[in-house]
Design goal:
heterodimer, A: 500 residues, alpha+beta, Helix Hairpins, 4 domains, 17% strand, rod-shaped, disordered C terminus, B: 227 residues, alpha/beta, Arc Repressor Mutant, subunit A, 2 domains, five-stranded parallel sheet, three-stranded antiparallel sheet
Chain lengths: 500, 227
C-alpha cells in the first residue's frame, strides 16, 4: 500500500472487503433463481440450527455441570463430620481415615492438608499442587469453594472445605469424564441435527422454488414450442391464482396476435399467388400461340420471344412454389397418404423429375438397395415427387446434373426403420458454412457453378425442406464419394407388411 | 374432324387467350362467359368437351357442371385456381371428369382432352359382352344396360373406368393403373379422381352403393370388380 493511501485506510478496507466479496457475489448472481432460493433456504436453516443448537448446548451443559457440582458439594460435606471426628482423636491414622472418607463421599481422589502434611488417596498422581491456586487460597482463608479444572487432560471438579476445628483443609476431587462424554454426544447430536436441518431446508427451498417457478417453466416451454413453429401452443389457466392469471392471459394474448399476424402474412402470400394465376394463364397461352409461330418472326423478335418464354416459365414456377410454401405456412397443407412400394416410388419420382429437366441433362443412374425390396412407405407421393424433382433440378443447375440417385435403408429413429434417398452430383459440392442456409428461401449459394441461362426460383430447396418436414423426414447435405454434393432425404418406413 | 370445345370462363382475357391457344392446337372453340350462356349454347350445339371455370359469377361452376350432367354425358374438365381438396372433390362430385389448375397452357390441356376423348369412337372390332350382376357391358358400343334391356346412364369416363375393371374381373387394379388407362396420367396423378369416380359409378351399378358387391375397394392397393 502506498503512503498516500494510509490516510484513507478505512475506505480502502471497505474496498478490499468489496473486492473480496466480488467473486462470491458474481458467482451468486450467476446462479439460477432456483439455485439461489435453494441456497437461501439452506443458509436460513443452517443459521437457525446453529442458533438453536448453541442455545440448547449452552443450557444443557450449564445445567448438567452445576447439577454435578452441587452433588459433589453435598457428597463432600457428607464426609466432613467423619473427618473432623477422626482427626480430633490423637495419633489418628490419617491415610486410613482419608481413604474411608473418600469412599463415603464417592470422590475420585481426596486430598487432606493437616498439621503441615498433605495426604492424598492417589499419592502418585494427585498432590495439593495440582489443585487450582484460587481454590487453595480461598480454602486457606477459611472459605469453602469449588472449582473445575483439568487434570492430565481430564475435566475435574474440586471441592475445598476448611476444617477449622482440627486445623485441616479437605479437598475432594470428582472426575467429570462421564459428564464430558455426555456433553460431547449432545454436541455431536446437535451438529448432525443442524446438518440434517440444513439439507432439509435446502430441499424444501428447492421444492418451494420449483413449485413457485412452475408457471415460469410452463411459459418457457410454451415459448420454445412457439419458436419451433407450433403456433397453437397456449398456456392453460390451471389455477385461480391472481398472480398468475395475468401472466397467462397476456402471454396467450401475445401468441394470439403473433399467430394472427403470421397467418395474415402467409395468407397474403397465398392470395397474391392466387391472383397472379389468372393473368399468368393468359400470358402463358398467348405466348404458346406466339411460339407456335416463331418461325414467322424476325430473328430479333424470335430471340426476345425466347427470353420471354424462359422467364415466364420461371415466373410460373415461382408463383406455384410461393403458393406451395405459403400453403404450408398457413398450415393448410393437405397430405394424401398412400401405402407405396419404396423402390417403385423412387424410380417413378426420378422419372417424373427427369421429364421436367432439359433434354441435354443426362438422367442419373438409379440404384435401389435390394434390402428395400418389399419395403412399404406411407407417404404423400406427389410431395415426394416434388422433392425429387427439385433436388434433380438443383443438381442440374448447380452441380452439372445428378449422377446417381441411391435409396437404401437408413438409421432407426425411435426404434422405427427409415429409408435414405441420396441425390449425388459431381459438381463443386456445398461448403460446410452454407449447408444449413442453402435450405433458406431465396438463398443462392455463393460459390455454386451456376448455369447462366436458366436459374432456379430460389425456392426449390426451401420447398424440399418443407415437404420433407411434412413427410416426417429429414434432409441433409454431405460430400458425395467422388466429390460433389450428396443431398439426402430420410423418410420413415411403415413397419412390416402393408396393412389390410 | 376436329373436336369442338366449349370454354366457360368469365375472364375475357383468359377466354380469348385460351381460344387462340386451343385453336392453335387444332380444336374448334366456342366460348361463353357464364353458366347460363353455357347451358343455352349447349342445347344449340353440343361440344365434345366442356371446360368450366369453377369461379363464375351468377351460376357457379359446380352448379353449371351439375346442370350439364343432367342432360349429357359430355366430358367436363373443370378449371380451378385453388388446389384445395374441398374444391376439387366438390367439382368431381358435381360431375367433372378431370381438372386443371391455373396457370395451365393449351398443350397440357390438349393432353387431358385427348385422354378424355380416347376410345370415344367405337373401334372396328367384334363387340364383346361383359356381364356382372344383372348388368351387361359392351365396351365397343359404349353400352351399359340391365339384362332386361334398360340402359344405365353414365358418363364416358365412368364407362371407361367400368370397362377397365370389367375386362379384368377379380383382379386388383391400382389407382396408378386406372389413372394411366382412363385419364392418361402417370404414377403421380391425383388418386382422388379415381376415388370420386368409383363412388359415382357405385351409385349407378350397385344395388346398395353403401355396401358394394361388385366394385370392391382393396385397402391400400386399389379396386377390383367381382362379377
Amino acid at each position: 500500500m502506498t503512503d498516500g493511501a494510509v490516510a484513507e485506510a478505512p475506505p480502502a478496507r471497505a474496498d478490499r472487503l468489496r473486492h473480496l466479496l466480488r467473486g462470491p457475489v458474481e458467482v451468486w448472481e450467476r446462479l439460477g433463481l432456483r439455485a439461489r432460493i435453494t441456497g437461501l433456504f439452506a443458509l436460513g436453516a443452517l443459521l437457525l440450527s446453529i442458533l438453536m443448537g448453541g442455545l440448547s448446548f449452552y443450557t444443557a451443559s450449564h445445567f448438567l455441570v452445576s447439577d454435578q457440582i452441587n452433588a459433589s458439594i453435598k457428597q463432600s460435606l457428607a464426609g466432613t463430620p467423619t473427618l473432623e471426628q477422626g482427626l480430633a482423636v490423637p495419633r489418628a491414622d490419617e491415610f486410613t481415615l482419608l481413604a474411608s472418607v473418600n469412599s463415603t463421599t464417592g470422590a475420585t481422589t481426596s486430598v487432606l492438608f493437616f498439621g503441615g502434611n498433605q495426604y492424598s488417596t492417589n499419592t502418585f498422581s494427585v498432590s495439593i499442587n495440582d489443585l487450582p491456586e484460587g481454590l487453595r487460597t480461598l480454602v486457606r482463608n477459611g472459605t469453602p469453594a469449588t472449582e473445575t479444572f483439568d487434570l492430565n487432560n481430564h475435566p475435574q471438579v474440586a471441592v475445598g472445605i476448611p476444617l477449622p476445628t482440627v486445623h485441616a483443609r479437605y479437598f475432594a476431587i470428582f472426575d467429570l469424564n462421564d459428564l464430558d462424554h455426555t456433553l460431547h454426544v449432545l454436541a455431536l447430536a446437535l451438529v448432525v441435527g443442524g446438518l440434517v436441518t440444513t439439507v432439509l431446508g435446502g430441499l424444501i427451498g428447492r421444492l418451494a422454488s420449483g413449485r413457485s417457478l412452475r408457471p415460469l417453466t410452463a411459459v418457457s416451454r410454451a415459448a420454445v414450442a412457439i419458436a419451433r413453429g407450433d403456433l397453437d401452443t397456449r398456456l392453460r389457466a390451471t389455477t385461480e391464482d391472481p398472480d398468475l392469471t395475468g401472466l397467462t392471459r397476456s402471454f396467450n394474448l401475445m401468441v394470439d396476435q403473433l399467430q394472427d399476424r403470421i397467418e395474415r402474412d402467409a395468407r397474403f402470400a397465398s392470395d397474391v399467388s392466387h391472383e397472379l394465376r389468372s393473368p399468368l394463364t393468359t400470358i402463358a397461352n398467348t405466348l404458346n400461340v406466339l411460339e407456335a409461330h416463331s418461325s414467322e418472326l424476325s430473328p430479333r423478335a424470335g430471340q426476345a420471344l425466347e427470353l420471354l418464354g424462359g422467364d415466364l416459365r420461371r415466373f410460373e414456377r415461382m408463383v406455384a412454389e410461393l403458393l406451395e410454401i405459403s400453403r404450408s405456412d398457413t398450415g393448410s397443407a393437405e397430405m394424401s397418404l398412400e401405402f407405396v412400394d419404396a423402390g417403385e416410388l423412387v424410380r417413378q419420382a426420378v422419372a417424373a423429375g427427369v421429364r421436367t429437366l432439359p433434354e441435354a441433362v443426362a438422367p442419373p443412374q438409379v440404384w435401389i438397395d435390394p434390402l428395400l425390396d418389399d419395403t412399404i412407405l406411407n407417404v404423400d407421393k406427389r410431395r415426394f415427387e416434388r422433392v425429387m424433382t427439385n433436388l434433380l433440378e438443383n443438381a442440374a443447375l448447380y452441380g452439372g446434373g445428378a449422377t446417381r440417385v441411391a435409396a437404401e435403408p437408413g438409421p432407426d429413429r425411435r426404434g422405427l426403420p427409415t429409408m435414405v434417398v441420396a441425390v449425388e452430383d459431381h459438381g463443386p459440392g456445398v461448403p460446410l458454412g452454407e449447408r444449413r442456409r442453402i435450405f433458406d428461401r431465396f438463398y443462392r449459394g455463393q460459390t455454386a457453378g451456376r448455369r447462366g441461362a436458366s436459374t432456379g426460383t430460389g425456392l426449390g430447396l426451401a420447398l424440399v425442406a418443407e415437404h420433407v418436414r411434412l413427410l416426417g423426414g429429414l434432409v441433409g447435405i454431405e460430400d458425395a464419394p467422388g466429390g460433389g454434393a450428396r443431398f439426402t432425404v430420410e423418410l420413415p418406413v411403415t413397419d412390416g407388411e402393408e396393412p389390410g | 374432324m376436329s373436336s369442338r370445345i366449349l370454354v366457360v370462363e368469365d375472364d375475357e382475357r383468359i377466354r380469348s387467350s385460351m381460344r387462340l391457344a386451343l385453336e392453335e392446337e387444332g380444336y374448334e372453340v366456342d366460348d361463353v362467359a357464364s353458366g347460363e350462356e353455357a347451358l343455352d349454347h349447349f342445347s344449340a350445339q353440343a361440344p365434345d368437351v366442356t371446360l368450366i371455370d369453377l369461379m363464375l359469377p351468377g351460376m357457379d361452376g359446380f352448379e353449371c357442371c351439375r346442370a350439364l350432367r343432367r342432360q349429357s354425358a359430355v366430358p367436363i374438365i373443370m378449371v380451378t385456381a385453388r388446389t384445395d381438396t374441398h374444391d376439387i372433390v366438390a367439382g368431381l362430385e358435381a360431375g367433372a371428369d378431370d381438372y386443371v389448375t391455373k396457370p395451365f397452357v393449351a398443350k397440357e390441356l390438349g393432353a387431358r382432352i385427348r385422354a378424355l376423348l380416347r376410345r370415344a369412337r367405337p373401334a372396328e372390332e367384334e363387340p364383346r359382352v361383359l356381364t356382372f350382376g344383372d348388368l351387361e357391358l359392351i365396351p365397343e358400343q359404349g353400352v351399359l344396360r340391365h339384362r332386361d334391356g334398360e340402359d344405365v346412364h353414365c358418363t364416358r369416363t365412368e364407362f371407361r373406368l367400368l370397362c377397365e375393371l370389367a375386362t379384368n374381373p377379380n383382379k386388383v387394379l391400382t389407382r396408378e393403373q386406372l389413372l394411366d388407362r382412363v385419364w392418361g396420367y402417370d404414377y403421380f396423378g391425383d388418386g382422388r379422381l379415381v376415388d370420386v369416380h368409383i363412388r359415382r359409378l357405385r351409385t349407378k351399378v350397385e344395388p346398395d352403393p353403401a355396401l358394394p358387391r361388385h366394385i370392391l375397394t382393396v385397402r391400400g392397393m386399389g379396386y377390383k370388380l367381382v362379377p
